């Protein structure tokens, strides 16, 4: 059989179109990034051919010696990177990592606390459409109306009242530091366990630019593909005492054979994250987010909680008189890709939303500078304050294409 191009011209063509789209757009989606060529090589490899159900040294298939070595490297690197006693690198995604963590820590129907989706939490933190909300009795905490930061007093009150078995700490749309130590103290008051979900902030945590949850959590779950810049997948860290419950929760309870190509790619990403350039990269992600936020504020836009401590910003468009949906669509026409997002206490439904979530991991991987972030902020303000103006959008698109042409996308050379 031939190459992709010969075998399947339709899919090959779609890949080319997507390469072009990625090259010709400014990607401000906070949960996306560009994996390196090395990560892509491992992920796109023939390791996809190999079944390796089980764990290193204890597989259900023959011929696993290289897979054992690969998975052991991924595990050792994850443990070293995050200073964790145990790691499981098999979860296929962040949602699966959370499912396995719940299996390891709770029984169906148990009471658990998590941040509400409407205030920045994740679907898997007990939303009613998710397996999590259907399987467990979730009590939700959120942010304070004035400060728009997590209301730790409310968390404490809810914990004392509901006596949860588990408290989940983590978010998909929260621009501030998470105080894991404080959550641990609250959990200890009621004998609850703590699951930290660092899907978004894993890269920052790895280099110490966000406080680590590892000493304060029973289990930590994460994705590899957001700030961490690895392949699309998940992993779990935990203390030794949970090692066997986590491992059996992942396999055989939740998944079948591990995706060894993804595990190899995770090993590569963990290796890359241990290099000093990666610390510089994460610092640049923060610097770019701060600049983007400050410039948007100068342009008259309001940021939820007044700013950011991490790689993302939540923009409240209420005063600009534009919905999240309108802003997302107008920006997309200018090749700036963002996502609409509910703001805390939003009065609009989620499919319209009053806000935008912006993040800098992807643009920073592409080498965008502080000066360019200032330009991008001014372009965003221009589009939002001239929302129906086709002429303005045309000009902005030209500028965007010009900026994009200066920065190749890592890993894409077609
Ligand atoms: C992205 C995310 C997940 C889920 O990751 P998937 O790989 O999309 O399943 C889980 N938790 C949080 C906090 C996230 O931001």
Task: Estimate the global geometry from the Cα principal axes.
Answer: globular
Helix content: 40-55%
* CATH homologous superfamily designation of the largest domain: Type I PLP-dependent aspartate aminotransferase-like (Major domain)
Bound molecules: pyridoxal-5'-phosphate
Strand content of the residues, in percent? 5-15%
In summary, what is this structure?
This protein has 414 residues and is an alpha/beta fold. It folds into two domains: 40-273, Aspartate Aminotransferase, domain 2 (3-Layer(aba) Sandwich), CATH 3.40.640.10; 283-414, Alpha-Beta Complex (Aspartate Aminotransferase, domain 1), CATH 3.90.1150.10.
Question: Would you give an account of this structure?
Answer:
There is one protein chain. Helix content is 44%, strand content 13%. The protein is globular. It has 16 helices and 15 strands. The chain has helices at residues 4-7, 9-23, 37-43, 65-82, 94-105, 131-135, 152-162, 180-190, 202-206, 243-254, 260-273, 276-298, 324-333, 361-365, 370-385, 390-405, and strands at residues 26-27, 54-55, 58-59, 86-88, 111-115, 137-141, 166-169, 193-197, 219-223, 234-238, 302-303, 312-316, 336-337, 339-341, 355-359. The strands form 4 sheets. The chain has a 7-stranded mixed sheet, sandwiched between helices. It has a 4-stranded antiparallel sheet with strand order 11-12-15-14. It has a two-stranded parallel sheet with strand order 1-13. Strand 2 and strand 3 (58-59) form a beta hairpin. It folds into 2 domains: 40-273, Aspartate Aminotransferase, domain 2 (3-Layer(aba) Sandwich); 283-414, Aspartate Aminotransferase, domain 1, CATH 3.90.1150. The chain starts with a helix and ends in a 9-residue tail after the last helix. It is of the alpha/beta class and 414 residues long. It binds pyridoxal-5'-phosphate. The site of pyridoxal-5'-phosphate (PLP) has 15 residues, from helix 5.
């Amino acid at each position: 059989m031939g190459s992709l191009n010969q075998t399947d011209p339709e899919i090959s063509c779609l890949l080319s179109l997507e390469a072009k789209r990625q090259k010709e757009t400014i990607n401000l989606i906070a949960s996306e990034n560009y994996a390196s060529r090395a990560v892509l090589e491992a992920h796109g490899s023939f390791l996809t051919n190999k079944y390796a159900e089980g764990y290193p040294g204890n597989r259900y298939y023959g011929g696993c010696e290289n897979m054992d070595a690969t998975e052991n490297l991924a595990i050792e690197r994850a443990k070293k990177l995050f200073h964790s006693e145990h790691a499981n690198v098999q979860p296929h995604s962040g949602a699966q990592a959370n499912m396995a963590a719940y299996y390891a820590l709770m029984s169906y129907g148990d009471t658990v606390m998590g941040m509400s989706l409407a205030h920045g939490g994740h679907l898997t933190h007990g939303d009613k459409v998710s397996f999590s909300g259907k399987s467990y009795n979730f009590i939700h905490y959120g942010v304070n109306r004035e400060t728009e930061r997590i209301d730790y007093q409310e968390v404490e009150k809810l914990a004392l009242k509901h006596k949860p078995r588990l408290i989940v700490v983590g978010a998909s749309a929260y621009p501030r530091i998470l105080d894991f130590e404080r959550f641990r103290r609250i959990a200890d008051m009621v004998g609850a366990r703590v699951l930290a979900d660092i899907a978004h902030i894993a890269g920052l945590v790895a280099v110490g630019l966000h406080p680590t949850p590892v000493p304060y959590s029973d289990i930590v779950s994460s994705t590899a593909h957001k700030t961490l810049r690895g392949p699309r997948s998940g992993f779990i860290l935990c203390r030794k005492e949970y090692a066997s419950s986590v491992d059996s929760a992942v396999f055989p309870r939740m998944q079948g054979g591990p995706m060894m190509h993804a595990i190899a790619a995770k090993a590569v990403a963990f290796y890359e994250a241990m290099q000093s350039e990666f610390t510089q990269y994460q610092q640049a992600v923060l610097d770019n987010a701060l600049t983007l936020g400050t410039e948007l504020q100068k342009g008259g836009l309001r940021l939820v909680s007044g700013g950011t401590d991490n790689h993302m910003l939540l923009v409240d468009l209420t005063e600009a008189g534009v919905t999240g949906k309108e802003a997302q669509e107008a920006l997309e026409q200018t090749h700036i890709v963002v996502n609409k997002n509910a703001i805390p206490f939003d009065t609009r439904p989620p499919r319209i939303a009053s806000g935008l979530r912006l993040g800098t991991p992807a643009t920073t991987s592409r080498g965008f500078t502080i000066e360019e972030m200032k330009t991008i902020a001014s372009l965003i303000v221009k589009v939002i304050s001239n929302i129906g103006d086709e002429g303005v959008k045309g000009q902005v698109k030209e500028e965007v294409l010009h900026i994009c042409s200066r920065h190749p996308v890592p890993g894409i050379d077609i």
